[in-house]
Predict the 3D structure of the following.
Amino acid sequence: MAPAARTRPDMRLGFAGLGRMGTRMAANAARAGFDVMVWNRSPEPAARLATEVPVGIAASLGELAARSAVIVSMLANDEAARAVHLGDGGLVASGGAECIVEMGTISPELVTGIAAEASARGKRFLDAPVSGATQAAADAQLLVMAGGREAGYPDLPPVFGAMARKVIWLGQSGQGAVMKLAVNMLIHGINQTLSEALALAGRCGIDEALAFDVVESSAAAAPMLSYRRPLYLDEAAHPVSFTVDLAAKDVGLALDLARRHGVSMPQTRATLDVLDAACRAGFSGRDMASILTFMKEARP
């Protein structure tokens, strides 16, 4: 449940993009008292959310912008973000919504383009991606990485307070997107290495749950291992939290950024190779924890 403190019930808040994360974030904002209106490319998620919490439904991005002071978008990739923000009838070109916040994972280059176009139209655009899986989104325990200075966005702390446990302001536009790619690169590297470690331990006769106990209690422990443990040990019994194809997308963006800045990342390249192979093998829509299954089935 979102915290009651620091909310702004008088603010008209728009939400664009109601996937696994966006639905939970919008619900928390509505429960915190914001006047929330939502839009999604396919109408079913918006209609479903409206039966659970008090939200209005916009028929178009133009209507969403016209009826919102601030819009939060949670979009899956550059293609979706470009269409929603910069397309015909998109958020930047539409009247209203003086402040737009993109909280999904998109490329820093696209952030730069959207921010420039928004500024030319007298709007503020902030890249503020989040770290945390679907449960953290449901519990309003996300980490926000904001590409700007808090002083320039005095209306946003209450919004973030309804969805997140912590906000780190990184100072410059695009730096939120950069940091998000760096964090996800690390997460997917851990996911790959853990999968290999458990596959090796299991092949040598160690019970998978016991091997996980050891890893969780070792110097290699990381928070994601604990909250994702059920998915690693019984992926099929739990809802998908983060898909393999999204993992490949994020790691690919990180490698593109590294190439442009002359940074060598051989381990991350190897991680992407495995993710791409898993996608080709039919794992695209499965949770990233399914890489454990993929590695157990792989042969040298």
Remarks:
- The chain is about 50% helix and 15% strand.
- The longest strand covers residues 164-169.
- The first helix runs from residue 20 to 31.
- Residues 12-173 form a domain with the Rossmann fold fold (CATH 3.40.50.720).
